[in-house]
């Protein structure tokens, strides 16, 4: 094999390996999915009700964030571990519910082997982003 052919083969293998690495990384970091099911203006001025479905694959986490809202969360499937500013870490299983205070930094993680599905209902400030990530 010529030096040029060897160099091309090595570059091709390196590119394939890099692509494989990126593909494996993407598979190792499952994405959290948030789906807005309903939004409705409320009688309280500047407020709206928002219902969302939260889906967290095994091993995934939301990251620390806040909401411009009070939130009521009901876990439908799986087990969700939640860290919330000013409170001890808590774990919720299917059938459990919990409350999120307006503006509190929090985040959920699925440490289990089955997906987490939860429904959240928020009383939110109208027109503001529902989730703001925090470092």
Summarize the structure.
The protein is an alpha+beta fold. 19% of the residues lie in helices and 44% in strands.
Structural notes for this entry:
The protein is α+β, with helices and mostly antiparallel strands. It folds into two domains: 1-30; 33-133, Jelly Rolls (Sandwich). Helix content is 19%, strand content 44%. The chain has one helix spanning 3-28; strands at 33-41, 47-56, 65-66, 69-77, 79-84, 90-93, 97-100, 106-109, 116-125, 132-133. The protein has a five-stranded antiparallel beta sheet with strand order 1-2-9-4-7, with no helix packed on it. It has a three-stranded antiparallel beta sheet with strand order 6-5-8, with no helix packed on it. The radius of gyration is 21 Å and the shape is globular. Mean pLDDT is 86; it is low at 6-13 and 20-26.
